[in-house]
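Obj.: predict assembly geometry.
Materials: sequence records (below).
Method: joint structure prediction, all chains together.
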Amino acid sequence: MALLSIENIRKEYDGIIALDRISLKVEKGSITGLIGPNGAGKSTLFHLISGVEKPDSGKIYFKGRDITSMEPHERSTLGMGRTFQTIQVWGNMTVVENIMAGMNQKLKGGMLSYGLWLPRIRRSEKGALQEAKEILDSLGLLGKWESMASQLPYGKQKLLEIGRALAMKPDLLLLDEPASGLTLNEIRHLSEKIIHIRQEGVTVFIVEHHMGMVMELADEIAVLHNGELIAEGTPEAVRRNPEVIEAYLTRRSRDPHSTLSPMEKVSQYEIKKK
Amino acid sequence: MVETKKNEFRKRDLFYLVPLWLLSLIAPDPYLYHKKEFKKKDLFYLGAIGLAPLIWSDPHFHHLMVLAGIYAILSLGLSLFMGYAGQISLGHAAFFGIGAYTTAILTTRYGVPIFLAFWASAASAAAIASFIGRPILKLKGYFLALATLGFGEIFLVVLRESTDLTGGVIGIFGIPWFSVMGFIFDTYLKQYYLTWGVLVGLFVFSKNLVRSKVGRALLAVAASEDAASSVGINVPRIKLEIFILSAAYAGLAGSLFACVMSIANPEAFSLGLTVLIVMMVILGGMGNLYGPIAGAILLTWLTDILSRYQEYSLPAYGMILILLLIFFPDGIGTRLNVRVIYLIGYWAKKKKRDEGKL
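Observations (raw structure tokens):
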């Protein structure tokens, strides 16, 4: 059975149909990519999955449970980690505390036992610190574990955000445009990290603008266009799909830094890699 | 011409570092405030608290410090809610009042031992906080501030009008001294140790919260609620919990206040008190626990010293607050070293600057 399955989702904003008849399955252990031109409804779908917004009709199942009307924090507790399109690390905490806050739900005990600093609390806090340092080590951020998170450079903050989501030990990791604002080198580094994350048994769902990265990473790709799912399949199949090509060619990218269409970007990326 | 000499280093500047070094021993270390473990410095503070009333054994000083301690308990609780969870409450005077009146009513009308009434005060403040917290904590920012302000005003009206229960505008007299198992806290010195003992206990409790899971959840909620719920933190619940906790602190402080003053009347719990506590938290520095205590001591002293100058006291008070906020925008504990260097340098060079030599 699929880890996450979306069935017949529909979402309207003031009469404008953002998503219509979307059905999608994310298999356990896979990397699934969701792509589409600007305004296709990618972010809306992402918000529906993470629970920030609720669909008008349709169902969302996670691990076989109906999560359609669950709050975001309940979904996270079920094992759904996410990152944000605009970085949302907690700048008022240190790097290691950011990761430890990600583990919060696994640490048991009420406010009273924490205030009294009972021996078992002492042990669990110590264990959490250790574990957080290991996660930071695997992300290459251990050198800065004591500095404030707001002092990290942009790319490192993105990594920290992924680390925070991983600290929950999620089964499904939702990445909202992880490559946006990163340099090509950082994107390559990030891709390696994502592959590594999948090897550890975490299913990854990426919503991304950067086509090259998704094409390289994903096992399955879904393409959204004008609120509808126009293609689904392996990267190769999607790339050859005439509807996808048409969708991307008729609507050029609005990326201000580039006048290339996303499909042209893919080829550029591949050339640079060689 | 003149500008070039401005940054020149002189040997004399080194002497300025001596008082600064001494100050930095006392001041909460601003740049390391995110290291939240207990440090040796805390033992130093504890010693200072224990010895201060013995060295300076003057009843007026003791009484002032008792008040400062009570306000410190109150602002400690508020700083958990404001400084850590990033919410605004302008209704904490009401919880303070609920604590004071619970103690007053239980001890004078029903003859409940004061030690039990003390805990009942915290419980009643917490219960009312959990009752009003559920609806109003859905509000954010200014709206939350206004809702809590409204709660404070409603509380005052209830106090004044329900004469049978609260004694109306006159209030309740003759609240007994605090006593535990026959030991009566009847002098200012004993009360000093009582309030500061409670404060130290609550401080340790708060610090344990802040350096653990709870503190991280609070800071996460303050920085980004979306991100907090993305890691499974139940945002409404943690907000409610910390609101209840800070109300319980206020209840304890109110109970102590009633014992020390032996009277509870509505005037003591008006908006003025709320503004005073919020000012203590802001002046002391948000986002650390030493700040509200420093702020409480500072403002209690300031009001006392200025009250000698009668009609000039309020304008002077306002001026001093404005100056403090200009020179210490992040609180008197934060960046103290830097600020003092700046001020000393300013005064040292003032004469030369006036003569046009600099």
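Conclusions so far: The beta strands of chain A are 4-13, 16-26, 31-35, 57-62, 65-66, 80-82, 172-176, 203-207, 220-225, 228-233.
To do: check interface contacts against the pulldown list.
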